Amino acid sequence: MKHFIIVSILVIGATLLVYTGIQSIGVLPAQASAQAVSIDRLLNIQFWLISFLFSLITVTLLYSLVVFRRKPGDTSDGAHIEGNTRLEILWTLIPLFVVIFVAYLGAQSLGETRRVDPTALQVEVLSGQWFWSFTYPDYGVTTDTLYLPVNKQAVLRMTSIDVIHSFWVPEFRVKQDLVPGKTTELRITPIQTGEYQVLCAEICGASHAYMVAPVRVVTQEEFTAWIEQQASQVALDPVQRGRRLANQYCIACHSIDGSQKVGPTWKGLAGSVVQLADGSTVVADAEYLRNSIINPNLQIHAGFQPNVMPNFSNILSESQIEDLIAYIQSIK
Amino acid sequence: MKTILSLGLVRGLAWEILGTALGIGFVALVRALMGLPAWKAEPAVVFGALLGALFFLYGVGILNDWLKWAAGEETEDHLDDSHLGWRRYFGPSLDHKVIGIQYLVLSLLLMSVGGLFALIFRTELARSQMQFLTLNQYNTLMSLHGMVMIISILLGISAFMNYLVPMLIGARDMAFPRLNSFSFWIAVPAGLILLSSLFLGGFDTGWTGYPPLSVRAPLGMQMFFLGVSLAGFSSILGGLNIIVTVVRLRAHSMTAFRMPIFVWAALATSVISLTATQLIGLSFQMVMLQRLFGMGFFDPAKGGNPILFQHLFWFYSHPAVYIFVLPGLGIISELLPVFVRKPLFGYRWVAMSSLGIALVGFLVWAHHMFTSGMAEYLRVPFMYSTLLVAVPTGVKFFSWVATVWRGKISFDTPMLFILAGIIVFLLGGLSGPPNATISTDLHLHDTYFIVGHFHDTMYGGYIFPFFAAIFYWYPKMTGKRLNETLGKLQFWLIAPSFTVMSLLMMRVGLLGMRRRIADYDPALGFDPYHLVMTIMAFLTALGVIVFFINLIYTHFKGQPATGNVWNSRSPEWQVPSPMPVHNYDRELEVVGEPYDYGLPGSRYVKFHGEA
Fold first, then answer.
1. Alpha-carbon span B611 to B281, nearest angstrom
2. Which residues, given as ranges, of chain A have pLDDT below 50?
3. How far is CA B485 from the centre of its chain?
4. What is the residue range of B15's domain?
């Protein structure tokens, strides 16, 4: 009996210690969405359970190891206790009820993260190796930075042009894969203005680690101002329009300063003589550049692999391709 | 030289090279006859590798008896090949103990290779920015680390199930000795083909090989798929053999609830490997066919569905986790009573909890897919079923703690590894439920939290019990006892450093470190954590090196230990070590409970005719 009392006190003490330890080192990033609030609440309940169960097992075990260790010279056996059916039923049924209760809380928390606001801001998310692109269909605006107004739900409708990617902003907590041939949905209600990053969380090939795009949560007024500026800003200069497209889709793989990336650099490309993988050569004129964008396997640049560059014929409009070529031709 | 050439392994490798060359030539010939360009790497290499594996099996001699039977010839029932000495370990022996040790050596070999891969990319991760690996090299090493370790673990559990199960139930051998030998030898070409992916362009998908990425990956991807598919045969046939052996070949008086507890674990494991392994083979072969023949299983442009792959893949790959840990948990339950000198608390509950985990394990696979875009409402039932696994797992923990309570505990090396196994598996178990409740998993999925959680379950459920089992049964295998001082040094190098590493993995994961990334943003401030993790990984590796030194030291300087080293009640320790070829020369009779330590005068088994 004495042992049980000591162990019980130690277990309670250890539970408080472990839980306080977890909380004091700060285990989660900033809580920047309404969904994060509900997820962190459930995590907190689980941290209590983890602290208790960890203490219960390890403290009892360590106590036994110290108190019941074999004394030198003792060759006798321990107490002959084969089991206790009542105890076994107890530690089957109690955990059973606990896990069912946790599952119930889990379902409730899932419901909260999926709560639908019919007035949510619509955003279409397109991903590919290795870029993020965000379109606001109500405003006809497409950008490489995700702007979201604070305290307003945004519904992201997402798809991929090549392999599976996954949308994750750690401060928002929620995560959703983007699957080719399918549209998936994610709802986020930012509650804190600031700058974050969307990270690709599903391995998607060589540059997976660098598939990152900026996220800005701004006030409603700032958002309105930004979106109006974007909608009205149809730059007159095709090179400028091309640069914006390039920043969105291309620069993950193609450098403009001659540095090595997954694809050939654009520095000094236009007008140069390109060595192809099949041994022939071609002058990098507008037609070559167009082919490389809409039919990338036709002429493979020597030293680079086929099937890496996505086919952009369904993503870019004819005029956007013209803009992009104009931009590439402007890089000397 | 003649001796070397007569070894089954050497002949097998020679035949494998021949078979691969023939396969490549055959594809080139068929293509030429069809009027296509003769050389196309992918079909030629895949068919060559497949034919090479079949030729290996022929060359090693494992098909000989079956071929003779097919030709109507008689063969000897079960050869005693002990006169061959060390050479029988390199040929198609039918003795379950030889096969067990073959499995063990191959498993340790692959574990070292997989561990080396981990050390290489762990060093790259010690600092942010890329240091000495390219992105593709990183991805290939990281992906191969996963699958090489999985194959190594499958071989490691087969090692102990093969070596122990017939011995523990009083059988002369396994039910199907030739099938048993086949199961081992097919793992050799499988391992070679898997590792060959390193030299054929590698692959960048992680061990999960999700399409469409795996459809676009280099040729190494096909070697990965083919190697794993072949290794699957080893698992399926091995599982079948264990089940039949346990059901049919037990000593007559050994009722189900008087079997050693490890046998229950082996049975539960084998039920999973016999019935689930096909699904990973299927999913991988579907991607192989999609790549080779353009079949559109997972190609949305052809009406396929990439998510279908994930369902097929996880239907095996989640239960597979229980294949990895159940034997280890069985070893914990088996050894704990010996070192605390007390009966296993609640034997029947522990036995049933293994079956419970195995059965519930079949109903939880989609918890790996909560973010995948699968049918949304289906996630909730999978959350309930997943959390249910905690109940039988809890029964095991409570029973272990109750077994230790009021025992007379001694701390030999096997016991130290058992205790580390319990505590580390507890960390792995307790970090599980946050991944099971869907909303919290939306944050944790595909982060280092999962990496830490998973490594804890593997070390607690496999690595630590595996080393405990090696130290415990080494005298039975060789007649010599491994050095205790080196064993304790190994333990203190591995256990604390691994635990620190896994906790840091969980920490960076919660803070936003994605898994499977070659590089991380220095602005996140993870550099110091990763440096510590890398140091801890090297300390763990140092512990494994100490283990190999111990093996060499014991071989030359080890003290003979032929008796009941651990004062165990189990049947294999009632006869001198090492075990003779057909195990017990007299029939085994069960006369008591397996774990009645502390009950004066009681015995578990006696031999026929013994007083």
1. 52
2. none
3. 27
4. 1-69
